[in-house]
């Protein structure tokens, strides 16, 4: 029996994409515009929903989609999808984690180097009292979250000669580019030794404000703080405290809380901060990887095979 799949239209799809999808065996794929009324209208007979915008995905969608077996989000961040009724349902959920790791790891490296070498200060075209740049060799970096972003980032940082310490709730392969591995509960004991801290973890109940005011106070003077995953991992209000933000050599935030960050927000006025407005997931290849994952999972779903990138809805990643 053919699977009915509702696919929300997107600029990442190539020309004649609908004709290509129609060739997938055991599947009937319907593409609709990004309109909630149209989505709800089409849902009752659908077995799968792909790339539904976060702002649309709610209890109304679930009530209409009684035959749903699978939901896919092209993005990596999924906390807005995880409301109680969906979490407790039997609907499988997949997302775009791992495939964005390359560009976000590159972005994190860019932020670290911009701060360590004073590049962002030169780029501002303003007069600054420049501190002597630092080398990354033999410095200690803590990476909070060793998933699709954290692992490629660790690999890159190791090539700079850094000592890499990772924090993860999962059991990971014993790779040569991570020197030490701990659980999140150990951050409190290790944070003082870090020259660089990078947040790459998903946002869950456990990781929300994992870097709170007390931990930020504990961080080493003239260290570097980077966040490229979710803004709420760091207590952004605490960063506004002069005693906290002034201790850092620099702060690099691709994500903030709130996100997007208002143009007149006080964080933007700090002299030692770089804010890149949630652009780390963009690259020349990220849309291609997203499309390939989606097509592969559609084929798997239509042939009753296991899906890639299945989310544990209770864990939140």
Any overview of this molecule?
With about 325 residues, the chain is an alpha/beta fold. The protein has 2 domains: about 5-100 and about 285-300, NAD(P)-binding Rossmann-like Domain (Rossmann fold, 3-Layer(aba) Sandwich); about 100-275, Rossmann fold (3-Layer(aba) Sandwich). It is about 30% helix and about 15% strand. The strands form 2 sheets. A 7-stranded parallel sheet has the order 8-7-6-9-10-11-12, with helices on one face. Strand 1, helix 1 (about 15-20) and strand 2 form a beta-alpha-beta unit. It is elongated. The mean pLDDT is about 95.
Instruction: Give me the secondary-structure category.
Output: alpha/beta
Which regions contain 5 or more consecutive residues with pLDDT less than 50? none
Would you report the number of β strands? 12
Integer count of domains: 2
In CATH, the architecture of the largest domain is: 3-Layer(aba) Sandwich
| CATH classification, class level of the largest domain | Alpha Beta
Radius of gyration from CA coordinates: 21 Å
Q: Give the fraction of residues assigned to helices.
A: 25-40%
Strand order of the largest sheet: 8-7-6-9-10-11-12
Distance between the termini: 31 Å
Q: Look at the structure and give the mean pLDDT.
A: 95
Gross morphology is: elongated
User: CATH superfamily name of the largest domain?
Assistant: NAD(P)-binding Rossmann-like Domain
Task: Give me the number of helical elements.
Answer: 12
Please name the CATH topology of the largest domain: Rossmann fold
Estimated share of beta-strand residues: 15-25%
- Give the H and E element order: EHEHEHEHEHHEHEEHEHEHHEEH
């Amino acid at each position: 029996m053919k699977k009915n799949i509702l696919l929300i239209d997107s600029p990442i799809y190539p020309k004649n994409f609908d004709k290509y999808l129609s060739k997938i065996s055991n599947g009937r794929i319907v593409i609709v515009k990004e309109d909630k009324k149209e989505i709800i209208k089409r849902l009752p007979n659908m077995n799968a929903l792909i790339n539904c915008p976060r702002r649309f995905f709610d209890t109304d969608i679930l009530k209409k989609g009684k035959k749903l077996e699978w939901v896919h989000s092209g993005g990596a961040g999924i906390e807005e999808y995880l409301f109680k009724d969906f979490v407790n349902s039997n609907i499988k959920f997949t997302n775009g984690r791992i495939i964005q790791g390359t560009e976000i790891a590159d972005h994190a490296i860019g932020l670290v180097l911009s701060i360590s070498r004073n590049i962002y200060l030169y780029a501002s075209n303003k007069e600054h009292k420049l501190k002597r740049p630092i080398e990354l060799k033999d410095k200690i970096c803590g990476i909070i979250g060793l998933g699709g972003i954290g692992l490629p980032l660790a690999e890159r940082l190791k090539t700079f000669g850094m000592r890499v310490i990772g924090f993860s709730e999962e059991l990971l392969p014993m790779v040569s580019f991570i020197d030490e591995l701990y659980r999140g509960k150990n951050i409190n004991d290790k944070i003082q030794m870090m020259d660089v801290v990078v947040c790459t973890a998903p946002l869950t109940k456990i990781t929300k404000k994992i870097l709170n005011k007390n931990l930020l106070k504990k961080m080493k003077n003239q260290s570097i703080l980077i966040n490229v995953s979710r803004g709420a991992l760091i207590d952004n209000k605490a960063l506004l405290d002069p005693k906290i933000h002034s201790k850092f050599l620099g702060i690099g935030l691709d994500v903030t809380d709130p996100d997007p960050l208002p143009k007149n927000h006080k964080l933007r006025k700090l002299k030692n901060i770089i804010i890149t407005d949630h652009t780390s997931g963009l690259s020349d290849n990220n849309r291609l990887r997203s499309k390939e994952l989606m097509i592969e999972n559609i084929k798997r779903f239509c042939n009753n095979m296991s899906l890639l990138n299945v989310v544990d809805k209770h864990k939140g990643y």
